[in-house]
Amino acid sequence: MSRRALVVLPTYNERENLGPITDRILAATPEVDVLVVDDSSPDGTGRLADEIAAREARVRVLHRSQKEGLGRAYLAAFAIALSDGYELLVEMDADFSHDPKYLPEMLARAKDADLVIGSRNVAGGGTSGWGLGRRLLSRSANLYARTILGVGVYDLTSGFKCFRRQVLEDIGLSTVASVGYAFQIELTYRTIRSGFRVTEMPIVFVERRSGHSKMSWAIAWEAATRIWALRCSRSIGR
Q: What fold characterizes domain 3-232?
């Protein structure tokens, strides 16, 4: 029997956030399960995840031996989710940048779309806690990616998404090359090129409550260069 939905939470040094965000997700969406994917966090996030899973049947943990990037964490989680029969797979940050209050609407919209993107850049969406410079950088990065790839999605870098399982089965996950935040662009682009229905719903992205951002110049550079590789690829899409 298929299961309704799985929320995937990749973690690395998120001990302060993991308990509260898990509680909020479970309360907001009684029909979903949670899979924490921890890359051997030195702050003990993995041990805390095990403690949460021991007392909450809807929470599972995947321990990975080393930090290999956001993309590899999601790919490992997707393989488990598809094998276990989940119909909807949700990507979500563990640092409260993505508010669990949006999950019910996101799951509802997935009835009529193959990929639902929580978007900062459509009417009603936005950011909280960002300065002007960061807002301009984010908007410019999305405009750059959207223009080069020739797609109509306004928040290609969003990490808050809900995929129908058929999308992940069809877009060739085994050939996804991106590791960092370019992973989000690549999966959305593959989804569009494969002819699936994509919709954006407005969210307000909130600056993380605690801990440190995982963004680095190496991750930003990968995203900038990977876009051209995707644009030139002839193997993506039907």
A: Spore Coat Polysaccharide Biosynthesis Protein SpsA; Chain A (3.90.550)
